[in-house]
Amino acid sequence: MTLSAATALLVIDVQQGLDDPRWGESVRPGSPLRPDRPGNPIKPEAAPEPGEPVFQKTVNSAFIGTGLEAHLRTRGIDTLVLVGLTTDHGVSSTTRMAANEQMHRLARASLHDEFATVRRTGEVLAEAGSPG
Predict the structure, then answer these.
(1) Which of 8, 121, 112 is nearest to 62 (CA)?
(2) How far apart are CA 15 and CA 91, in angstroms?
(3) How far is CA 58 from CA 25, 79, 98, 111, in A?
(4) Domains in the chain: boundaries
(5) 72: CB partners within 8 A, 6+ apart
(6) How do residues 60-92 score in pLDDT, each as one tens digit?
(7) For the whole model, what pTM was predicted?
(8) Do the beta carbons of residue 22 and residue 31 sit within 8 Å?
C-alpha cells in the first residue's frame, strides 16, 4: 500500500481517561473525559507534535461539532489512516462518516433497478411539473 501526500493520520480517543473503567461520552457529568477532568488530556505516547492540529470532539465522531472536515478539504486530504483506542466507538463512527459520500453512492447503486429506481431530484420535479 502506497500512501499519497494527500493522506492524514487521524488519532482518535487516546485520552488518559480511557484507562478509567467509567469512561463515557465526554459531556456526561462524572465522565473522566470531560474537558475539565484530569482524564481529558491526550496520553503522552499519542501527543501531537508541535503545530499538529487537534480537534476536540465530545461525541462518537470526530466530524460532529469540529472543524475536521473543513480542515481536510482545505488541504486536499482525500485519504485517512485512523487509529485509536475505542474502535467500536470513535474510530468506527468517524470512519463511517468519512465515507458517507461513498456509502451514499454505494447504497444508491445497490437499490437502483433492484428495489427502486434512483433518479435525480430535478428529473422527478420536472416530471411532476414543478417549477423547481
Answers:
(1) 8
(2) 13
(3) 6, 23, 17, 34
(4) 7-98
(5) 8, 80
(6) 889 999 999 999 999 999 889 888 887 677 888
(7) 0.67
(8) yes
Amino acid at 129: G
Q: Which residues contact 118 (CB under 8 A, 6 or more apart)?
A: 108, 109, 111, 112
Q: Report how far residue 64's alpha carbon sits from residue 26's, in angstroms, rounded to the nearest whole number.
A: 13
pLDDT tens for 20-39 read 777 667 778 888 888 888 88
Q: Which of the 8 DSSP states describes residue 45?
A: G
Summary count for the chain: helices (H), strands (E): 4, 2
- As a whole number of angstroms, the distance between CA 10 and CA 52 comes to 11
Total length of the chain: 132
Determine the topology of domain 7-98 in CATH: Rossmann fold (3.40.50)
Taking the C-alpha atoms of residue 107 and residue 94, their distance in angstroms, rounded to an integer, is 19
Q: Which helix (H) or strand (E) holds 73?
A: helix 68-74
Could you give the 3-state DSSP secondary structure of residue 79?
strand
